[in-house]
Amino acid sequence: MEIVGFVQCSIIKWNQKAVLELDSALNEWIDALPDFCNYAIQLKDTVLAHQSVMLHAGFYWAQIQVHKQFMSWPGQKSALTIHSLAICANAAHSCVHLLDHHQQYK
Q1: Class of residue 66 by CB neighbours under 10 A (exposed 0-12, middle 13-18, buried 19+)
Q2: Which residue in 23, 24, 82, 106 is deepest, having the highest Cβ count within 10 Å?
Q3: Which pTM does this prediction carry?
Q4: Cα dihedral sign for 61, 66, 67, 71?
Q5: Are 92 and 65 in contact, with CB atoms under 8 Å apart?
Q6: Calpha distance 94→55 (Å, rounded)
Q7: Helices 79-105 and 16-32 meet at what angle, rounded to 10?
Q8: Of 81, 63, 56, 70, which is closest to residue 25 (Cα–Cα)?
Q9: What is the per-residue pLDDT across 63-101, written as a single tens digit (0 to 9) for each?
Q10: Residue ranges per structural domain of the chain
Q11: CA–CA gap between residue 105 and residue 99 (Å, rounded)
């Protein structure tokens, strides 16, 4: 949650370095989750399944928060802008898929 707090501070000057550092920190965080928090595993424990969904949905939300700031600059056309757009689209798609899957199998 420190990452999200950092993202939401209005005094942050968004640049490529900040976006890359935050993206890296988010990926390190999700990769460091223990195996039992992995939603891909068929979880029998309903509480654990809900918690896993919330962790992953929060991750996707944080990815969007990080990258939407960078790609919203008017006239900005760079490889990172396109990369940020792709990450936002993928995070939104993954979150919808996660929630849909969870709703079907809960």
Answers
A1: buried
A2: 23
A3: 0.77
A4: positive
A5: no
A6: 13
A7: 30
A8: 63
A9: 999 888 777 566 666 666 788 889 999 999 999 999 988
A10: 15-105
A11: 10
